[in-house]
């Protein structure tokens, strides 16, 4: 059988290290004199407010990833991988210094010390952003205790695929694009272009490293899939602006969907290059509903806005179109092949319209209303059901408290429990 070659075969850790040496730059020598003048003359009051909100996410993130990288270095199997990861830690610290300088010298944030700047911007961080970076902290702690290949692969997926490829890279493109189009903030633009070049090298390392880890342990795809299913719902809440005022993004010429689409496309591309296409990962679907990256971004936005995923801010939407998106996602998350046999699950709500899902391997469908001959009926308040979907509530606790009441063929439900995610 002919050997199948990958483009990653042409990338070596030694070459990635060499690129780091060639690409070195100095965050302390960037001139922000013109930036400080243009910050006042070329940006409106709201644009400055919106830019600080957006730049704060980068500033906090660069400091967080610099602090969290050490366990990755310790867990890497080879010296060459460790050497590159040490260069990445240096890069992240340099990025934090760059952002700290700009935020203080141009935007007037903090007293010049990193701790002061971070403390001032912390209120700008969003729920989704905090969830992901809190997970980075716990992941680093887990990696200190468990240096296994699957755990390392999950950690690389979080750091390089989610944080760098699907969050940072689209954000960098967003910022450099509008600064170039308006020809403003030359010092900040220079620094952002340098940051983007560094991150591209980091992502290239992450893709190759993840591919190599996959070859080392057959459990890697399972660990990666589990991490993605945990974190992907949070990503939809990363760029939720204050009071849902979309001008925080749109005043610079982009939309929430634009950024979400680019992030989803970047993640899919990188995972495919690593030899683990997202739609081929084991277990429940990472993306419960299909569609293009933009369609998924728009669906994620709608789910967050409706209160179905993300931070809980009041009762969830009962709009019929919103509920359709919700139940289509629930249907897409079911592993119907694990059902004991085909059947229909009816949801009955005292405070919302009923919905049902016909479970059939290869053709599971959600539909509004009551089904004839439902195999199982689940009764609950709609808000409790949404909290289960959003992982805010444990369904077992709700059943103990009689807030979730199943009826009908419970034996079929028990035998088919494997079709539910995280069952």
Give a brief outline of the structure.
The protein is mainly α.
Strand content: 5-15%
Coarse morphology: globular
Largest sheet: 5 strands, mixed
Describe the oligomeric state of these chains in a short phrase: single chain
Instruction: Assign the CATH architecture of the largest domain.
Output: Orthogonal Bundle
How many domain modules? 2
- What's the alpha carbon Rg, rounded to whole Å? 23 Å
- Unreliable spans are none
Topology:
Layout: H1 13-22, H2 33-41, H3 45-68, H4 70-75, H5 79-105, H6 114-121, H7 127-145, H8 149-182, H9 186-216, H10 220-235, H11 247-250, H12 256-273, H13 293-305, H14 320-333, E1 343-348, E2 355-359, E3 365-368, E4 376-380, H15 382-389, H16 395-400, E5 404-408, H17 410-415
Parallel strand pairs: 1-4
Antiparallel strand pairs: 1-2, 2-3, 4-5
Helix pairs in contact: 1-5, 1-9, 3-5, 3-7, 5-9, 7-8, 8-9, 8-10, 8-12, 12-13
Kindly describe this structure.
- There is one protein chain.
- By secondary structure, the protein is mainly α.
- It has 2 domains: 7-305, Ribonucleotide Reductase, subunit A (Orthogonal Bundle); 330-419, Nonspecific Lipid-transfer Protein, Chain A (2-Layer Sandwich), CATH 3.30.1050.10.
- It has 17 helices and 5 strands.
- The chain has helices spanning 13-22, 33-41, 45-68, 70-75, 79-105, 114-121, 127-145, 149-182, 186-216, 220-235, 247-250, 256-273, 293-305, 320-333, 382-389, 395-400, 410-415; strands at 343-348, 355-359, 365-368, 376-380, 404-408.
- The protein has a 5-stranded mixed beta sheet with strand order 3-2-1-4-5.
- β2 (355-359) and β3 form a beta hairpin.
- α1 runs antiparallel to α9 (186-216), α3 (45-68) packs parallel to α7 and α8 packs parallel to α10 (220-235).
- The protein is globular.
């Amino acid at each position: 059988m002919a050997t199948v070659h990958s483009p990653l075969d042409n990338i070596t850790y030694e070459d990635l290290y060499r690129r780091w040496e060639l690409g070195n730059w100095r965050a302390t020598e960037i001139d922000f004199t013109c930036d400080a003048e243009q910050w006042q003359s070329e940006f409106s009051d709201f644009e400055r407010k919106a830019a600080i909100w957006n730049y704060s996410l980068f500033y906090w993130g660069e400091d967080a990833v610099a602090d969290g990288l050490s366990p990755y270095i310790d867990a890497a199997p080879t010296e060459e991988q460790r050497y590159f990861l040490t260069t990445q830690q240096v890069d992240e610290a340099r990025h934090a210094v760059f952002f700290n300088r700009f935020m203080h010298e141009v935007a007037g944030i903090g007293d010049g010390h990193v701790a002061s700047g971070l403390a001032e911007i912390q209120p700008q961080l969003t729920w989704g952003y905090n969830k992901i970076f809190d997970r980075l902290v716990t992941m680093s702690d887990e990696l200190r205790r468990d240096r296994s290949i699957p755990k390392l692969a999950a950690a690389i997926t979080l750091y390089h695929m989610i944080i760098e490829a699907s969050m940072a890279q689209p954000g960098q493109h967003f910022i450099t694009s509008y600064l170039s189009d308006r020809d403003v903030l030359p010092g900040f633009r220079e620094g952002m272009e340098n940051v983007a070049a560094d991150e591209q090298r980091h992502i290239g390392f992450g893709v190759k490293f993840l591919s190599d880890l996959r070859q080392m342990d057959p459990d890697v795809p399972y660990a990666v899939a589990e991490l993605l299913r945990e974190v992907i719902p949070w990503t939809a809440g990363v760029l939720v602006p204050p009071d849902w005022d979309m001008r925080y993004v749109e005043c610079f010429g982009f939309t929430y969907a634009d950024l979400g689409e680019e992030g989803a496309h970047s993640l899919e591309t990188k995972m495919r290059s690593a030899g683990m296409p997202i739609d081929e990962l084991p277990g429940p679907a990472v993306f419960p509903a299909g569609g293009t990256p933009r369609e998924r971004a728009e669906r994620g936005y709608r789910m967050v806005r409706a209160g179905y995923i993300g931070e809980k801010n009041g009762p969830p939407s009962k709009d019929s179109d919103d509920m359709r998106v919700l139940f289509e996602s629930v249907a897409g998350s079911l592993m119907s092949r694990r059902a004991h046999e085909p059947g229909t699950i009816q949801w009955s709500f005292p405070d919302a319209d009923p919905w049902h899902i016909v479970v059939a391997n290869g053709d599971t469908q959600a539909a509004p209303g009551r089904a004839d001959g439902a195999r199982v009926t689940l009764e609950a308040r709609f808000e409790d059901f949404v909290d289960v979907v959003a992982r805010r509530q444990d369904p077992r606790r709700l059943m103990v408290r009689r807030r979730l009441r199943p009826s009908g063929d419970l034996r079929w439900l028990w035998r088919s429990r494997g079709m539910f995610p995280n069952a």
